[in-house]
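A sample follows:
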Amino acid sequence: MKFPKPQTLEGIASIIHSDYVGAADFPVLGMNEIHVVQPGDIVFVDHPKYYDKALQSMATVVLIDKKVDCPRGKALLVSDDPFRDFNKLTRHFRPFQPAFAIISESAVIGENTIIQPNAFIGNNVRIGSNCVIHSNVCVYDNTIIGNNVTIHAGTVLGADAFYYKNRPDKFDKLLSAGNVVIFDNVDIGALCTIDKGVTASTIIGEGTKLDNQVHVGHDTVIGSRCLIASQVGIAGCVLIEDFVTIWGQVGITSGITIGEKAIISAQSGVSKSLPGHKSYFGTPADEFRKKYKELASIRLIPDIIDKLDKIQ
């Protein structure tokens, strides 16, 4: 997320009441999670295990819970609770805007696009030309939808990320300030849910087709011309490359990559990155040939046990 205008290190520190290491006028351009940070961004870290990753990332400002040696060309914001203060910055720069109409006056809708009754279009939404948005679709603020997109009834674009910190007394929610971006020629079935990014975009690529009841987690990027069947659940921060096919009821864990032209069969559980141009099934999902060998070996176990019993 980029700020509306450049900020200074001192200015950011005053918002969250933190100490800082660096020049007071050190430029700060935005804030992002570690996997999408760019030069000028703030990234937060609150565990020593991840200090080096944050300090060596592309971020030039690190919101951290301990004063450490600051890498050259970077700055620190030292806070007793970086998670809390990252939320403070989200509230400050991307506050919640209530809606005052079913279709916001700030929404931009292209030519020949049809918005069916009872669809909700939030603030600063952009929808291209020749789209059809069916009844009871909910499009949250800042969503971007391309041309020739069809979205079926009951789908929600832009709900919050499922991202919580486990405190001793509660789960503390990390606020979402990103959005959803849908490219041209995408079809989205009924009752799908696509969560917005925490600070960046959840993306559905050109020509991709989603069946009914598909869930896409925060900051996931789905490439072009993918086919995703019903009841697939995709966690946050997943990269699905172009021309991937995912059949029904597949579950995909967070932070992994599915390679180009991979095929994942129904009811598979994907717990690690999978190279492209191969077919997979099972839980944990693996290549067809390897999985069939495993199943064949499992079927031999009763005979092996029977033979061992006879020997004894």
About this structure: The chain has two domains: 2-93, 108-249. The chain is about 15% helix and 30% strand. The longest strand covers residues 2-8.
